[in-house]
Each structure stands twice: as structure tokens, then as C-alpha cells.
Amino acid sequence: MERKTITLTALAFADAPTTSVSGPIEVLTVAAQLAGAPEPVIHIVTQDNQPIRGLGGVIISPTIDIEKVRQTDILLVGSLGFPDTNLETLEDATLDWLKQFESHDIPIVSICSGAFVLAKAKMLENRTATTHWHFANLFRDMFPNTRLQVDRRVTCDQKRYCTSGISGYSDVMMLIVEQVFGLTIRESCHQFVFGDTDQVQQKALANFIPYRQHNDTLIHQLQDWMHSSPTLEFSVNVLSQRVHLSERQMKRRFKLATGQTPIQYIQQIRLSIAKDKLEKTKQTIEDISREVGYEDVRYFRELFKKSNDMTPLEYRKRYQR
Fold first, then answer.
1. InterPro entries given for it (predicted)?
2. How many degrees, rounded to 5, is the angle at CA 255 between CA 251 and CA 258?
């Protein structure tokens, strides 16, 4: 199946780390190469369409005038640098340009202090976000309607992605790569660009990030165990015993923290592992269904299609290498 050419538009700011722009661009480009997909179209824009000087004197030149960009598949807002001094350089025209993407069903990513830019454009209202810990109090004072969680390296809320630091671009771009090219390319890309990762990190799939934006340490521990467990024989009773709670208490706390019931979350894990097997193995759909815990193959197919908008076979044809 021929893959679509992906367009990424990056907004770069002066006096900021240029890695917040160049890093994500490089990751997406490598991922496309590994997937055998067309090279991404990269638009780099600045507020005044002039080159900017980043930290260390690195120069970034725009590739297109900002007002000419009306459509993109991924919108990236680079670091603003020090927001306590640089936020005042934000122009109304830039904020208006950003706001046009509010209604677009695309990933909108801010790196580090770039969250201040999205918040200033009112694109993080009543959403969860993160930013650099050093500017946490300033952010809370300026944008009280955003749920700031600086203890999170990456947040995702309704396709608004934020990172707490510059290096967080690696994590957030892996989530984007998985959405665009699939789990296998995500893992290959991470190994190629950043080196090997441990099993828990590899299994921290994109569709679980929204369910980790809570502060219940006990449920976080339970989620970590579920993702790293070698068996899929989960049950409400097993989970309750694991955290030494009654079934009723565990179900209530799990739902309150994640927004999902334990059974719904178990289904997510099983379907994610099924996706991995569809991409990497030649196992039959029937064998994969049973291996991830579904003896009723018809039910597995229905559940998979409901979750991924395609059947297991369609998914395999699209993503298997």
C-alpha cells in the first residue's frame, strides 16, 4: 500500500534551543526512510519570515513564509527559550496563525517552553500539559485553566502533546511515529536514532499515554506492572491482590485515575500486543487472538476493528514489513 507523504510544520523561535525543532524533524525523516515511505515535507516557519539565531549561535532559516501554511499533518511548536523574557516577543499574528489549526484533527506538539506559546494562543484551555519545571509557577500564574503536570515528561490531551524538556522530543516523536507508521517502525526508529530501550519503555505505547496523566501512585505502579508482565492472564481479582485493595476499591480508584475500567484497560494492552504480532510475525489471526487472551476469534476481530478502525487483516497489510 502506497504511503501518504507527511507534512510537518515547525515554528522556530530566536534565543531558544534549535534541537527542539531539528530533533523532531530528524526523527520523522528517519522513520519515513525506515518505513520506505516518501520523505516528509518539512516547513520551517518563523514569526517574521526571517532567519533566527538560536542558542549557541545556530542559525535556522525558514523554508516558507508563515502565512502561506494553511494545512499540515503535524504542527510543531519549538521551545520559546526563557518565557519570562521571550513571551513578550510573541506577535498577535503568530497566535492567530496557530489558532487556525485548533479545529484541525492533527497532532499539535509543543517542546519544553513551547507550551507557553500554545497556552497563550488558548489552545491548552482545560487541557493537561507539561513544561519545564523551572517555569512551572509562572505557567500556573499565567494560565490557570490549564492542568499543569510538570512531573510528566510527556502529556497528551486531545492531540495536544507537550514535553517537560528539550530531550522530551524523543518520547513525543516516538508516539507520533507509531501513529503514522506503526509500532515496528517506532521501535526500529528508536533503536536507530537513540539506541536500545528497555521493555517497559518499548511497551509504553502511544494509546496509553492519555491514561497516565494522573497522580495516583498506586495505580501508576499497577499500570507499570501490567505493561511489563510476561503474561496476559489479568483479572480484577489478580489486580486487586497486586495492590492489596478490595475489588471494589481497586475498580473505583482505577476508573477515577485513568477514566477506564480495569477490563477496558486490559483490552487495550491485549490489542496493542496483537498489533505488535500482526506487524512482526506471520501468525494467523486465530493464533494471535488466542495468544492475547481471546478464544472467541470473532469477538477479537470486532473488538480490534472498533479500536483501530480496520480489521486485523487490514492492519497487517498496511503495517507489516
1. Class_I_gatase-like (IPR029062), DJ-1/PfpI (IPR002818), Homeodomain-like_sf (IPR009057), HTH_AraC (IPR018060), HTH_AraC-typ_CS (IPR018062), INH-QAR (IPR052158)
2. 135
CA distance linking residue 228 with residue 233, whole number of Å: 13
Of the candidates 44, 303, 3, 2, which has an alpha carbon nearest to the alpha carbon of residue 177?
3
Please name the residue that has the C-alpha cell 538560536: 54
Is 25 buried (19+), middle (13-18) or exposed (0-12) by CB count in 10 A? middle
CB 18 within 8 A of CB 58: yes
Please identify which residue in the block is written with the cell numbers 524533524: 25
Q: Among 1.10.10.60, 1.20.1250.20, 1.10.3720.10, 2.40.37.20, name the CATH number for the domain at 216-319.
A: 1.10.10.60
20/137 Cα distance (integer angstroms): 22
Among residues 290, 280, 285, the alpha carbon closest in space to that of 314 is found at 285
What digits encode the pLDDT tens for the residues 147-181? 999 888 899 888 999 999 999 999 899 989 988 88
- Going by C-alpha positions, the residue among 127, 8, 169, 161 that lies closest to residue 75 is 8
CB atoms within 10 A of CB 103: 7
Residue 93, φ and ψ in degrees, nearest 5: -65, -35
Q: From CA 274, how far away is CA 283, in angstroms rounded?
A: 10
DSSP letter string, 123-145: -STTSEE---GGGHHHHHHH-TT
How far, in Å, are 17, 66, 277 from residue 95 at the CA level?
A: 21, 12, 43
Q: What digits encode the pLDDT tens for the residues 211-246?
A: 766 778 899 888 888 877 756 678 899 999 999 999
Domain boundaries in the chain?
7-184, 216-319
